[in-house]
Amino acid sequence: MPCLLAPSAAIAGKLECLDLDDDSRNSLAPPVLNPSTSRDLLSFFGTRMERLHRWSGSPALFEWLLGSRLGSALSDLQQMSDQDNRAAVSLLASHLEDLLERDGVPS
Q: Fewer CB atoms < 10 Å away: N or C end of the chain?
């Protein structure tokens, strides 16, 4: 799942085309390191869930992702259209981040 370079590059390009300031762009797509250990992988998936939640909250980006063929690489993107799923993903990402921080894994 990590290293989805084509969708990542496409999202960065789309964000540059949207009428957003740099802070808004950066909040939608902060840098993420690719995992190198199993613990990193847990953190990566927490970040991915949190990012899907952010993207689904930006109508212009989310609609573009849903219609993009590169969006198909994000298999659970469609479920983010449902408000209950968005809330559950946000909560799960938050709990995973808390768990990793308690266990000494930096975010």
A: C
